[in-house]
Automatic annotation (TrEMBL), chains A, B:
Domain of life of the native organism: Eukaryota
Keywords assigned by UniProt, alphabetized: Ion channel, Ion transport, Membrane, Transmembrane, Transmembrane helix, Transport
Topology term for the membrane: Multi-pass membrane protein
GO BP term, pick one: monoatomic ion transmembrane transport
PANTHER family found in the cross-reference section: ALUMINUM-ACTIVATED MALATE TRANSPORTER 10
Subcellular location: Membrane
Organism: Pyrus ussuriensis x Pyrus communis
Protein name, per record: Aluminum-activated malate transporter 2-like
Transmembrane residue ranges: 41-60, 66-86, 124-143, 150-170, 182-206
Biased composition (Polar residues): 1-14
Annotated Gene Ontology cellular component terms: membrane
C-alpha cells in the first residue's frame, strides 16, 4: 500500500518532485541543443546584440526625433529579418528593402489617385486598390519560382502598399512617411546583415556543401560496414540487431526538401572563402539527388540485415568474399568522393575503388554462375541473389555519384589534387593492385606495387605504397 | 543570310516577339496554376477582402481616432497572419495574440523597472533587458517542439517586448499603447480567422487526410500495373519506357516533411465535418511512414522495369502468374485501404486481397523451388529472384499499411462499413474463391461462389457475385 501510494504521488502531475524533474530535463535538453551546435548559442547572442543596437538607436532622443515613430520599423525589421544564416538574412533584407521601395512608390501613386477623385470617391478607390493589389500579389506568391526566393518580398509588398495607400494623411505627409519607412527598413536590414555577416557568420552555402559531403559519407559508412554485418548473421544463423552507426544513412532518404531550400538561400550569399557568388548550387542538388537514389538502394539492402527469411549460411558463404569487396570498395569510393568534395579538390582517388568494385561484381557474377548450382533449394538462393543484385545496382549508383561529383568539381572550379607522391597510402585489393601495375586500370598513372602476395582470402585488401615520378611517369621507388 | 539574320533577331533578348512569348507563357502558367487548384484563386480573393475590410476600418476617421496610429497593426496583422489553410491562420493568430499579451505585460514591467532606476540607469537597463530576452527567446526557438508549433509566437514575443520596453513614453502612455496594440492585433487576427474560416475554408486536416489516402492509392496504382509492365518486357526482350501513370508514386518518397508540417497545422483546427478537435493526427503520420517504407520497396521494384540486366523471358515466364497476382492483389488491397480512409469507414475489404497475395506468395515460393532447377545459368535467375523477393517484402509492407490504417480507423472513430449485401462485385482468384466458400479466409461471412471453374492459368482472376443474408448468414442466391 505504501509503495503504491508512493507511486501515485510520484505520478501525480502536481508532484513537486516531478515538476523539478521536468525542469531539470528541460534544462538538460537546452544544454544538449547548445552542445550539438554551438552556433545556435552564438546566433542568440547576435540577435540580442543587433536588437540592443537598434533599440538604443531608437531610444536616444536626438535620433528618435529625427526618425519619429517610424523608427520602430527598424526594430521590427531586425526581429523579422535576422535569420540563422547569412543567406537567409541577406535574402530577407534585400526582399524587404526592395519591396518597401516599390510598394511605397506604388502606394504613394495610389494614394494620390484616390485623393484626386474627391471625398466620396477616395475610400472606394482605396478599397479597390487594396483589394486588387492584395489579391494579385497573393496569387503570384503561389508560383513556385517566386515562392522559393521572393515570397517574403511579396508579403512586404502587400503590407507596405496597404499601409501607405490607406494612411489618411495629406500627400506631402505620405511621401515623408514613405521615405521614413524606407530609411528605417534599410537601417534595420543593414544592421541585421552587418551583425549576421561580420560576427561568426553562418554561411548556408558552406552548410549545404558539408551536408552533401556528409550524406555521401554516411552511405559510404553503411556500405563499408554492410558486408561484415550481413555475413556476421550467417555465422550464428540469427539476424543481428542493426548497428546504430550503420543506420545514419536514414536521414539521407528524406533530406531532399531541406537541400533545396538551403540552395535557394545560398544563392543570396556573396563570395565567401572558396565559394564564389555564382557558385553552382544546382549541381549540389544534382549530387544530392543521385546520392538519395543510392540511399533508396541501401534502404533495400538494409532490410536484408533484419529480414526474417534469410538464405542459409552455406549459400551466403559462397558470395561472402565478393559481396564484401563490392560493398566495402563502393563504401571507400563514396568516402573518397565525400572527402574530395569537403576539401574542394578534384580528386580521382575514388576511381580505383570503383574499378575494384566493378571487377568484384564481374567475379561475383561468375561465382553465382558456377557455385549456385550445388544448391537444390532455389528459394534459399533468391535472398542472397537479391542482395547480390542490389549490390550490382549500388556499383552503378556509386559511379553516378562519382560522375555528378566530377561535374560539380569542374563547374565549381575545385582545385586539382596534387599527385600523391609521398607516403600517402591507398587501400586496394591485391588482385587489383597487380592489374594496376600492368596498366589496365591505371588511374592517372598511379603505379601500385603489391608489398605482399600472401593475403587472406575474403579480406584481400592491403595498404600499398604508391609512388610516381611526375615528369617521366615512371615509379619512383620499388618497395 | 536572310534566314540567319532572321534567326538572330528571334534569339535577341530584346526582341518584342520573344518578350510577348514570355508574357504569354507566364499568363498560361498562371492559368494552369489556378486550374490545378482553384482554391488558390479563392484564397487570393479572401486576402484581398480581409485587407479591404480592415483597411476601411482603419480609414474611416471615427475608428481611426479611436485606435490611433496603432490601428495600422490591424492591417499588418492581417497581412502576416492570413494563411492558405484555417489551421495555419488560426495557429498564427493565436500565437500572435498570446505573444502580444504576454510580451506586452512583460514589456510594461521592464519599462517600469527601467524608469525607476533614474535617467542614467534607464537606457542601460532597457538595453540589458532587450539583450537578455531576445537572446533567450531566440535560443528557445531552436527547440524542435517549440519550433513546430510556437515559432511565430516566439518571434512576436521578442518584437512586442522590444517595442513596448524601448518606447520612450511615460508609464501611463506605455500601458495605453500596450492595450491599443493588443486590441488591434486581436482585431486583425479575428478578421483573418473569420474570413479564412467562413468563406470557402481550406482545412489542412482534410488535405492531410486526403494526401495520406492518395499516397496509398498511388502505390496501389503502381502495384496493379507493375505485373503487366514487367512481364511486357519479356515478350519482346527489351525493357520498355516507364509508363508515366505508374511513376506517380515517386512523390510519396519525399512527402515526409510536408506531412509533418501539415499535421502540426491541423492540430490548431477546431472540429469540422467528420474531424474532431483532437483528431489523432499522429496516426496519420504513422500511416504515412509505413506507406513511405512501402514506397522505398516499390522504388527498388521500379528499377527492375528499366534495368539493363534482365532475366530472359523464359525465366520470367516461370514466375509471371504468381508475381502478377501478388502485385495486383497488393495493389487492390492498398487501393481498398485508400478508399476506406478517404471515405472514413472501417472496412475489411482489403483483407481478402491481402490473403490472396499471401497465398500467391506461398505458391510463388513453391514455383521457385520446383521450376528454377530447369535453368542452369544462375545469374539469369537472380534478377527474377530479386523481383520475387521484393514482392514478398511488398506483401509484408501492405499488411503493415493495413494494420496502421486499422489503428487509425479505430482511434479516429471511423464508421463501420455496411456489410456488402447487394450486387457488389469482388475480384478474387479462383483458388481463393474456393477457399473462401469453405470459410477459411472468409471476411465478414462473405460467401463467394465460383461462376466458372475453367479459368486461364496465369490470369486466374474472375469477377464473382457475393451475396449473403444479414440475419441467417447464409448465401442469398446461388448463381
Amino acid at each position: 500500500m505504501v509503495s503504491s501510494n508512493h507511486e501515485n504521488a510520484k505520478q501525480s502531475p502536481a508532484s513537486p518532485k516531478r515538476q523539478r524533474g521536468k525542469i531539470v530535463g528541460f534544462a538538460l535538453r537546452l544544454k544538449e541543443l547548445g552542445k550539438d551546435d554551438p552556433r545556435k548559442i552564438i546566433h542568440s547572442f547576435k540577435v540580442g546584440l543587433a536588437l540592443t543596437l537598434v533599440s538604443l538607436f531608437y531610444y536616444f532622443k536626438p535620433l528618435y526625433e529625427g526618425f519619429g515613430l517610424a523608427a520602430m520599423w527598424a526594430i521590427l525589421t531586425v526581429v523579422v529579418v535576422f535569420e540563422f544564416s547569412v543567406g537567409a538574412t541577406l535574402g530577407k533584407g534585400l526582399n524587404r528593402m526592395l519591396a518597401t521601395l516599390t510598394a511605397g512608390a506604388l502606394g504613394i501613386g495610389a494614394h494620390r489617385l484616390a485623393t484626386l477623385s474627391g471625398e466620396t470617391g477616395e475610400p472606394i478607390l482605396v478599397a479597390l486598390f487594396v483589394f486588387i493589389i492584395a489579391g494579385i500579389v497573393t496569387f503570384l506568391r503561389f508560383i513556385p519560382q517566386i515562392k522559393a526566393r521572393y515570397d517574403y518580398g511579396m508579403l512586404i509588398f502587400i503590407l507596405t502598399f496597404c499601409l501607405i495607400s490607406v494612411s489618411g494623411y495629406r500627400d506631402e505627409e505620405v511621401i515623408e512617411m514613405g521615405f521614413e519607412r524606407l530609411s528605417t527598413v534599410v537601417l534595420g536590414s543593414c544592421a541585421s546583415v552587418v551583425v549576421c555577416t561580420f560576427i561568426c557568420p553562418v554561411w548556408i552555402g558552406v552548410d549545404l556543401h558539408n551536408q552533401i559531403a556528409t550524406n555521401i559519407e554516411k552511405l559510404g559508412i553503411f556500405l563499408e560496414g554492410f558486408g561484415d554485418e550481413y555475413f556476421k548473421i550467417s555465422e550464428d544463423g540469427q539476424p543481428i540487431n542493426k548497428s546504430s552507426s550503420l543506420q545514419r544513412y536514414k536521414t539521407v532518404l528524406t533530406s531532399g526538401s531541406k537541400e533545396e531550400s538551403m540552395a535557394n538561400l545560398a544563392r543570396w550569399e556573396p563570395c565567401h572563402g572558396k565559394f564564389r557568388f555564382r557558385h553552382p548550387w544546382n549541381e549540389y542538388l544534382k549530387v544530392g539527388n543521385v546520392t538519395r537514389q543510392c540511399a533508396f538502394k541501401i534502404e533495400s539492402l538494409n532490410n536484408y540485415l533484419t529480414s526474417e527469411i534469410q538464405s542459409p549460411p552455406e549459400v551466403r558463404n559462397i558470395i561472402k568474399g565478393e559481396c564484401t569487396v563490392i560493398s566495402s570498395e563502393c563504401g571507400k569510393a563514396l568516402k573518397e568522393l565525400a572527402s574530395a568534395i569537403r576539401k574542394m579538390i578534384e580528386s580521382s582517388a575514388a576511381e580505383p575503388h570503383i574499378s575494384n568494385s566493378k571487377a568484384a561484381a564481374e567475379k561475383l557474377k561468375s561465382v553465382i554462375r558456377s557455385s549456385f548450382s550445388k544448391h537444390r533449394d532455389y528459394l534459399e538462393i533468391i535472398q542472397a541473389g537479391a542482395v547480390a543484385s542490389l549490390l550490382f545496382e549500388v556499383v552503378k549508383c556509386t559511379e553516378e555519384v562519382a560522375d555528378a561529383a566530377q561535374k560539380l568539381a569542374s563547374l565549381a572550379h575545385f582545385k586539382n589534387a596534387k599527385p600523391r607522391v609521398t607516403s600517402e597510402k591507398q587501400e586496394l585489393s591485391s588482385q587489383e593492385a597487380v592489374k594496376q601495375v600492368s596498366g589496365i586500370n591505371a588511374a592517372h598513372h598511379v603505379i601500385t606495387i603489391n608489398s605482399s602476395q600472401s593475403l587472406p582470402g575474403s579480406e584481400n585488401s592491403k595498404r600499398l605504397d604508391c609512388r610516381i615520378c611526375r615528369l617521366c611517369k615512371k615509379p619512383l621507388t620499388w618497395l
